[in-house]
Write a structure and sequence with these properties.
alpha/beta, six-stranded mixed beta sheet, 6 helices, globular, binds fe (ii) ion
C-alpha cells in the first residue's frame, strides 16, 4: 500500500475580501487547490501545509483559513512560516493539539507508513529563518526515538541556497550545517520538504533530496541576477504529492492546480 502525503504551502490567506500585496485574492486559489486535491483518483492520506498559511498572522486570517480548509475531506497539519503568528495560529485551530503550547511549533506525526517530523524555522518579526540549539536538540531527540520508520523532515525555510538572491537573504541563516549533520546520521530520513520559495526546487542535501514546493497562489519570479527585484507573478500554481511506495522509495509528483482538457485516449 502506498502512503500519499500532499504538500500545500504558502497559501498567504488574508481576511475575506482583502488582497495580498494590494492585488491578489489568495482565497479562491486555495479553494482551487483543495478542489484539485479532492478530485485526485487516489485520495491523499494527509496534507501538510508548510507555512505562510496567512499573510500577516492575524486572527481574522486564521479564521478565514479555517473556513476554507473546512471543506477538505482528509487530515491536514499546519506549520508556521515567517508570515505567521504561532499564538494566533494555535487559537485559530484549537482542535489541532499537535500544535502544542511550547515556544516553537514542532511535531512528529505518523501518516500510514511514514513519519513526518516538522521543525519550526521561524523567528518572530523576521522574514529569515533560524534553527537554534533548542530546536536542533528537539530534532535529535525525535529522530533518535524512531530510527526505523521512513521519515520526512518538513520545514518552512529551505536549508539550501536557491540562487534567487532576495530569497536567499531571507533564507535559513542559522543551523543549516548542524541540520545537515543530524539528517546524515539518520538514514531513515528520506526527504526534506520546504516552503518559502513559492517554486519547485530540488537539490541534494545530507545525501538525500531536499525540495521546495510552489504556492497554490503566487510564485516568486525566477531571476538569478544579482539585482533581481523581490517580485511575484502568476505562473501556474501547484502543490506536491510525496509518495512512499510499497517498494520502499519516496517519489514526488508535481501537481498543477486547475481543471484541464482531457483525458483523451492514446489510441
Ligand atoms: Fe510565502
Amino acid at each position: 500500500m502506498n502512503t500519499l502525503l500532499a504538500q500545500v504551502t504558502d497559501t498567504h490567506i488574508r481576511e475575506p475580501g482583502q488582497l495580498a500585496y494590494g492585488r491578489l485574492d489568495t482565497a479562491p486559489y486555495l479553494s482551487a487547490a483543495l478542489g484539485t486535491l479532492m478530485r485526485m483518483p487516489q485520495k491523499p492520506d494527509a496534507v501538510i501545509l508548510t507555512g505562510d498559511l496567512t499573510d500577516f498572522g492575524r486572527p481574522g486570517e486564521y479564521a478565514h483559513l479555517a473556513k476554507l480548509l473546512a471543506s477538505l475531506n482528509m487530515p491536514f497539519y499546519l506549520m508556521p512560516g515567517n508570515h505567521d503568528d504561532r499564538d494566533h495560529l494555535r487559537d485559530g485551530f484549537p482542535n489541532h493539539g499537535y500544535l502544542g503550547t511550547g515556544e516553537f511549533i514542532q511535531f512528529s506525526i505518523k501518516v500510514r507508513d511514514i513519519r513526518i517530523v516538522a521543525i519550526d524555522t521561524t523567528e518572530p518579526g523576521l522574514s529569515s529563518g533560524r534553527l537554534c540549539a533548542a530546536r536542533l536538540d528537539w530534532l535529535r531527540t525525535e529522530l533518535a526515538a524512531d530510527p526505523a520508520t521512513p521519515t520526512v523532515v518538513a520545514m518552512h525555510h529551505p536549508p539550501f541556497k536557491t540562487l534567487i538572491g532576495h530569497m536567499d537573504e531571507i533564507g535559513l541563516l542559522e543551523g543549516g550545517g548542524e541540520l545537515e549533520s543530524i539528517i546524515a546520521a539518520h538514514p531513515n530520513v528520506k526527504r526534506v520538504i520546504c516552503g518559502h520559495l513559492h517554486r519547485t526546487i530540488y537539490t541534494g542535501f545530507a545525501g538525500i533530496v531536499a525540495s521546495t514546493a510552489p504556492s497554490p497562489a503566487h510564485q516568486v519570479c525566477l531571476d538569478f541576477g544579482s539585482g533581481a527585484d523581490s517580485a511575484w507573478n502568476l505562473e501556474p500554481p501547484g502543490f506536491h504529492l510525496h509518495v512512499w511506495n510499497s517498494a520502499g522509495a519516496l517519489l514526488t509528483h508535481a501537481i498543477p492546480i486547475g481543471q484541464f482538457e482531457g483525458p483523451y485516449p492514446y489510441l
